[in-house]
Every structure is written in C-alpha cells, then in structure tokens.
Amino acid sequence: xxxxxxxxxxxxxxxxxxxxxxxxxxxxxxxxVQHIPQHEESRxxxxxxxEIHARRETENKTYLRRKIGVIDKQIGxxxxxxxxxxxxxVDEVLWLRDGSLAPLDYKYTVxxxxxxxxxxxxxxxxxxxxxxxxxxxxxxxKGFVAYIRGKYKLYEVPVNSEHQEEIQLILDEIxxxxxxxxxxxxxxQKTHCIDCCYRNICx
Length: 203
Prior knowledge:
By secondary structure, this protein is of the alpha+beta class. It has helices spanning 15-23, 26-33, 44-56, 119-136, 161-180, 191-194, and strands spanning 70-81, 86-96, 101-107, 142-147, 153-158.
C-alpha cells in the first residue's frame, strides 16, 4: 500500500512513468532506483507533443465542446497529489452539465484502426481522472482523448471504481519496486526491447 512507502524519499510519478512501467517494469528501476535519465528530449514525438500542447494553451481558449455537455474548462492544468503520489499536466479539465468533471488529453497520433482508444491512452486518462477527483473533490465518471492526426476526433473513456483499483494496483507495484530497489523482471515482449533507451545497459 502507498502508506508503507517513505513519502520523503519516494518520487511523485507522472502518467508517462506509469505507462513506461507497464511497457517494461525495468523503466521504473532504471529511472527511480538507478536514476539514469532517458534523454527523451531528443525524441521527435516528445518534442512534437510538447509543441502541440503549448499551442493548445493559446488557441481556442474559450471554445467549449457543448455537444458533450461541457459548460466550462481549464487549459494546461498541473495536478499533483501527495496522497496518490502522482503528478502531471492534463491538457484540459472539463466541467460537465451533470456537475461532474472530466479530463481531456490531445494525442499527436491517428486513431486506432479499430476506432477505439488505445489501452495506454485509456490508462493515462484514468490516472488524470484520479488526480482530478482528489484535487477538485468532484466526481469523475469519464474522460476524453482527441486524436490530432485523426482530425481531432474525440473518444470517450469510461471511468469507474474498478478502473481506479486497477490503477492503484499498478502504482503499488511501482512503489514496491522503488522501495525494495530490487531489479524487476524485464517485459516478456521482446519487441519492446528493440527501441528501448536502456537496451545497451539492461542485463
């Protein structure tokens, strides 16, 4: 459980770090135990994503997606919770007509060929949903992903207690890795190793 972790020495994780742990648990060990950075600043998609997020904060600032019940929004919101040990910047926090809130994130990619939200993007939205609930004290029943290279097509991501428990289990596993400092098993997906930034030092 989170309460067993030394909060003075355990970092607050970003949604990206959680997704990297799912991709391969050794990301957590290299980054948070060995403190070896990824140097992701040179990767094209990372740079492009940052450029787009910066632009989104200045364009269409007053536009509201009324078709999905949006009555207000905040753009580029930094969220952090010592309780969850999570932090991150969500592109938009939406106020919905039913009184609930919803996170929205833009992705510089094309939609899934099956016309559904990628699993990693679902998890990211549900992490933001946890943060929004704690930070704002409002119920979150769903979130949204907009695929920029799919003409900004919008997809809804359901959020419920089972989803939140799933996220919590992943977080517990990450904190356990950090606390124990034991090298976890690498991913069983060999294809994940091909483009991994740690492939040359992973034993």
